Write the structure tokens for this entry.
Amino acid sequence: TYTWNIYEDNGIIHSKDYPKFLRTNVEYTWIIHMNSSNEIEINLTDINLDYDYDYLQIITGDVIYSLNIPKSFRLQTINETKLILRTKHSNDDYQYRGFNLTYQKLNKTSMDENNQLKNLPCGKIYSSYNGTIEFQYETLTSFDCLILIEVDDGQNIFLRFDYLNWDTKENYIDIGLFHDPNQYQIYHISDTLPGTWFIANHSQIWIRFYSSQFSFGNSTFRLFYSETIQWSTISPKPNIQILDNNRLFPYRLISLPTNGTYHNLTKVGSF
């Protein structure tokens, strides 16, 4: 086991081409002491490991992240951030095993990011007569955003994603009825295709979108919503398929003889 303590505010960490005699049961640990910083930005530019035996992890507090592809991300942390590379075996077929990354300690979220967050639809209430909700944010850190759409009595509401550019492994979108996302969580969206419609007829719809600390790139979507009295777009004889009841987010899928997919949120149990 080899351990290095790092106090610099920025730098390069790498482990590559280490000698063959070190390839069996070796653990490298880099401890980045955060000092007065509370965030760290990491850019993993290269990684090449035998993932059946080796792993590269980042540890912040009690949270452990495993890394396997090059990516950039930002972490909120206190005291220290640990970077651990461990290899379990020797294999001469691997001419290069290791990684390269750069890091930069940050004090707080920048002023530009604070202004960007203020322009998001988070915390807003929309009338469901009709309209669009735009979301665009470079998600390099975690956030949790909730919006509400009021539905007039006797009305149904249609929700349609016109486009969706979303890191489906790290970011999530939930749609639910009423106003308590902890009690009435209904539908979890991670891979929704543009053109999909969600239909519900309750007095209030909440939409929650949030990202983990490891999301990356620009996250964008545009959601169209509109009220209607009748189910005019629904086929009189739809093919109703009940999905796996053991799903954490159960819902009823209504498949129509069109190119669109319709999800009915009117008869979904809460948990």
Observations:
- The longest strand covers residues 218-228.
- The domain at 112-264 is CATH 2.60.120.290 (Jelly Rolls).
- Confidence is low (pLDDT under 50) at residues 230-259, 267-271.
- The first helix runs from residue 111 to 118.
